[in-house]
Amino acid sequence: MSMLRLRGFEIHKGYLDQARQRALIEDLRPILRSAPLFSPTIPGGGKMSVRMTSAGDFGWFADETGYRYAEDHPKGRGWPAIPEAVLAIWRDLTGLERQPDSCLLNYYGQDAKMGLHQDKDEADFSFPVVSISLGDDGMFRMGEARRGGKTDTIWLNSGDVVVMGGAARLNYHGVDRIRFQSSRLLPKGGRINLTLRVVT
Ligand code: SIN
Ligand code: MN
Fold it and tell me: Which of 71, 81, 116, 200 is surrounded by the most beta carbons within 10 Å?
């Protein structure tokens, strides 16, 4: 395990060993069963290439009218609870008493990517964002807090955890592409990213 800092992003390489990665995947199965993945439509009408769902009191959601947090899955029921093992990662890396109230689960299939964006649908940016990578490698792009600033990339591997806090909390970031089937954690390939946030 090692920690590096790039553009204010704290990158914990190899934070989760293989056993913990596998245990997390088992924790995610019941979430995916009760709150299945969906592809949100975004303002402008396109569909995101990433499929997603959430755990916690709030789930991140998008449709033609904009981006927001929702108390229910689009199929109508509340979101499942955030697994304890996920909360433990938050506590360890942030040292905060306050727990996250949202865990977004992004699934990247072969051709999925996520454009540069800021995480800014939350009420209080003094809380950091913690982002956990599982499965295939993803090329993570990190920028500044302004659109059009310089960017750097790093490959995130299964078990890496990124903390975006302090001055980097509003930095632009995205995922250019994944290396499909570079990991054997998920039998059918793909990348899962868990993003923990304090919403309210
Ligand atoms: C996100 O910013 O929502 C996802 C980042 C990632 O997949 O690593
Ligand atoms: Mn984000």
Answer: 116
Given a contact cutoff of 8 angstroms between Cβ atoms, the answer to whether 163 and 173 are in contact is no
CATH class of 2-197: mainly beta
Q: Say how many Å lie between the CA of residue 113 and the centre of ligand 1.
A: 9
Contact 137, 89 (CB under 8 A): no
Please give the distance, rounded to the nearest whole angstrom, from the Cα atom of residue 195 to the centre of ligand 1.
Answer: 7
- Which of 60, 79, 80 has the alpha carbon at shortest distance from 70? 60
Nearest to 39 by CA among 108, 101, 102, 103: 108
> So where are the chain's domains?
2-197
Q: By alpha-carbon position, which residue is closest to atom 1 of ligand 1?
A: 174
Q: What is the pLDDT along the chain (200 residues), one digit of tens a residue?
A: 899 999 999 999 999 999 999 999 999 999 999 999 999 998 988 999 999 999 999 999 999 999 999 999 999 899 999 999 999 999 999 999 999 999 999 999 999 999 999 999 999 999 999 999 999 999 999 999 999 999 999 999 999 999 999 999 999 999 999 999 999 999 999 999 999 999 99
Take atom 3 of ligand 1 and give the residue whose Cα is closest: 195
Tell me how far apart the alpha carbons of residues 96 and 86 are, in angstroms, rounded to a whole number: 14
